[in-house]
Specification:
By secondary structure, the protein is mainly alpha-helical. It has one domain. The chain contains 3 helices and no strands. The longest helix has 28 residues.
Length: 71
């Protein structure tokens, strides 16, 4: 997955911020969320949150990236 995202980082200008948010989420999950959920934070929630963050950063890059190239 890293190599796939590393190849498209130039096309999607906001994906690096999305990946930073994913790292923050994973850190919070390890430190705080697992304790809050009794040691078992749902995997489906984790995957959904990670996919949502990456997808949203790609969508924002597509929408705002076109505006920057048009100007």
């Amino acid at each position: 997955m890293y190599f796939m995202l590393a190849g498209v980082i130039d096309k999607f200008i906001f994906i690096k911020y999305g990946l930073a948010l994913v790292l923050v989420f994973v850190g919070l999950k390890m430190v705080w969320l697992n304790e809050a959920f009794g040691g078992k934070f749902p995997i489906t929630w984790s995957l959904g949150i990670i996919a949502g963050i990456i997808g949203l950063s790609i969508l924002i890059s597509l929408v705002l990236g076109k505006k920057k190239t048009d100007a």
